[in-house]
TrEMBL record:
Keyword check for Membrane: no
Annotated Mur ligase C-terminal domain residues: 386-521
Name the record gives this protein: UDP-N-acetylmuramoyl-L-alanyl-D-glutamate--2, 6-diaminopimelate ligase
Entry superkingdom: Bacteria
EC number in record: 6.3.2.-
Keywords: Cell cycle, Cell division, Ligase
Family annotation (InterPro entries): Mur-like_cat_sf, Mur_ligase_C, Mur_ligase_C_dom_sf, Mur_ligase_cen, MurE/MurF_N
Top EC class for this record: ligase
Coiled-coil regions listed in the entry: none
Name of the gene encoding the protein in the UniProt record: murE
PANTHER family documented for this protein: MUR LIGASE FAMILY MEMBER (PTHR23135), UDP-N-ACETYLMURAMOYL-L-ALANYL-D-GLUTAMATE--2,6-DIAMINOPIMELATE LIGASE MURE HOMOLOG, CHLOROPLASTIC (PTHR23135:SF4)
Every Mur ligase central domain range: 138-359
Signal peptide: none
One annotated GO biological process: cell division
């Protein structure tokens, strides 16, 4: 399914656009042919024209969609040849970081940062819809999607369906219709269009994932969150086309603290003290969540907890039993305590549930209010296609499909398998690849996380982009150093899953149990090759079909 594309009308005048850019220190100059000016009034005076009456009804960053009412934003790898038809189509104005007057007669608004300009203009074009919503932004290395779904379910139940959702899996702008997402955080123009749709549909809340790239490339520049949530942090998305270093990745994610009225954070995450300092420095209200494990109730630490964090209002999740299928208890130390059992597997999701409850509490909701307490139960019904989906064969083999795509998430998945099925001593087969052209460290990290805990690797295609899939698989295969683990390459992903199921059947005949872990793709119905999305049945569909056969 594609993103909702209902026509949403927007409008902005040239004078308002220039005023916005000037007030934010982004305006460099205005250029109309040989005439240059630093204000619209000066330009109009030199041209002998009243420019204040110009109105744009089409704000776009795609030169293929321009018309005589368009304001074109020239972002990214924009080339002057994209303006070859601009004059013939009547383009009146463009926004760019460079002068394109040699390519078009259109008025040029030259800015210092075109991506920031796009975000600000998009908000104004659609009537500042964010100000009409209570926006919840969620960031972190893992758990963003699940936390967003939990939070959305609670707010939807509480508000009678008046909660919108923007996630890496699905988007929902009307409270009921879910459509497939293309980006974790949409481009700013698309983001504000969807916000406008949400407002027009009567939504009161918007829950959205906020990626590190969204801050790095200014998709959410100027967007203020009622509540921001920082779920966790670990090295990821480090590559020449994403973040050059972990510091850059973490810094971009930390911007959520500067752009939130209230910040909810994992009290035991790595570098928690720095995140708390960010929040305090920007005047954000600060609260926390945590997962405790074991009979002693000790915190699940990613780093030693700062003593200053211990005094924060904290929502705590604690398992009811070492068996992760038996549920958990949430308490806030202020009179609220309630037991839950999730439909989505994995005790690591208890932390995501605690985060969701901390978020709604940070929105000002009283957890002891019976209406709120009832709304919280909506979390228990949440399932997310491609996230911890379990399939089984009549003979007892199991398969788990998950989007795990780095070492940390692979470790969490294997921890869950050990807790849920370890007593059965299963043969574990991991079917995995790794994305091309980015996050190169993931390849070795996945292998290192799994090689001492599984019986067999089957390396296969993922979203290879422009990298040869054989090279990615060979790099992962060569990273295996444990001589006890079986490993090999089956390039076709469907064939790789078929081989895993055949292996499980052979092991079943010998009286053993097998758990197949298919990671990296979730429920996606495509594989990206050479900048194209090639149709793919989906790990969930393939395994369901094979195991039922």
């Amino acid at each position: 399914m594609m993103l909702m594309t209902e026509n949403v009308q927007g409008r902005i005048t040239l004078s308002h656009a220039v005023e916005i850019l000037s007030s934010h220190g982004l305006l460099r100059e205005l250029i109309a042919g040989e005439v240059w000016a630093d204000s619209l009034e000066s330009l109009g005076s030199q041209l002998g024209k009243d420019l204040s009456s110009i109105v744009f009804s089409n704000l776009t960053y795609d030169s293929r969609t321009i018309d005589s009412a368009s304001l074109l934003v020239c972002k990214g790898r924009f080339h002057s040849s994209y303006l070859d038809q601009a004059d013939a189509l009547g383009l009146p104005c463009y926004v760019a970081q460079e002068d394109f007057s040699s390519a078009t007669k259109a008025l040029g608004i030259i800015v210092t940062d075109v991506r920031q300009a796009l975000a600000l203009l998009s908000a104004a074009f659609y009537g500042d819809p964010a100000s009409q919503l209570k926006v919840v932004g969620i960031t972190g290395t893992k758990g963003k999607t699940t936390t967003a779904y939990f939070t959305h379910a609670i707010l939807s139940a509480y508000s009678g369906g008046k909660a919108a959702l923007l996630s890496s899996v699905d988007n929902c702008v009307d409270g009921t219709t879910f459509t497939e997402s293309n980006l974790t955080t949409p481009e700013s123009l698309d983001l504000y269009r969807m916000m406008r749709q949400a407002v027009d549909a009567g939504m009161e809340y918007l829950v959205m994932e906020v990626s590190s790239q969204a801050y790095k490339v200014q998709r959410v520049f100027g967007l203020r969150m009622a509540v921001g949530a920082f779920i966790n942090i670990s090295p990821d998305h480090i590559s020449p086309i994403e973040h050059p270093t972990f510091e850059d990745y973490f810094y971009c994610k930390r911007q959520i603290a500067a752009n939130s009225d209230n910040l909810v954070m994992n009290a035991t995450m790595a570098h928690a003290s720095l995140v708390a300092e960010d929040a305090r420095a920007h005047g954000a209200g600060l609260s926390a969540f945590r997962l405790v494990q074991g009979e002693s109730g000790s915190a699940h630490h990613e780093e030693a907890e700062d003593s200053r964090l211990a005094s924060l209002p904290t929502v705590t999740a604690s398992p009811l039993d070492p068996d992760p299928t038996l549920g958990f208890r949430i308490s806030d130390g202020q009179g609220f305590s309630k037991d839950f059992r999730l439909s989505i597997a994995g005790d690591f999701n208890y932390a995501n549930a605690a985060a969701a409850i901390a978020i709604v509490k940070s929105l000002g909701m009283d957890l002891t209010d019976p209406a709120i307490a009832q709304a919280l139960e909506a979390m228990e019904k949440v399932t997310i296609s491609g996230r911890m989906e379990t399939f089984s064969s009549p003979q007892g083999s199991l398969a788990v499909v998950d989007y795990a795509h780095n070492g940390v998430s692979t470790t969490a998945l294997l921890d869950y398998v050990d807790k849920a099925y370890g007593k059965m001593d299963p043969r574990i087969i991991l079917v995995t690849g790794s994305a091309g052209n980015k996050a190169y460290d993931r390849r070795q990290e996945i292998v290192q996380a799994a090689q001492d805990r599984i019986a067999r690797f089957i390396f296969t295609e993922e979203d290879t982009d422009t990298e040869p899939m054989e090279e990615i698989c060979q790099q992962m295969d060569q990273a295996v150093t444990n001589p006890q683990v079986e490993h090999g390459i089956v390039l076709d992903r469907t064939h790789a899953l078929e081989e895993a199921v055949r292996d499980a059947a052979r092991h079943q005949e010998e009286g053993g149990m097998t758990v197949i872990l298919a990671i990296g793709k979730g429920n996606e119905r495509w594989i990206k090759h050479l900048n194209k999305h090639v149709a793919y049945e989906g790990d969930d569909k393939v395994l369901s079909r094979l195991l039922e056969a």
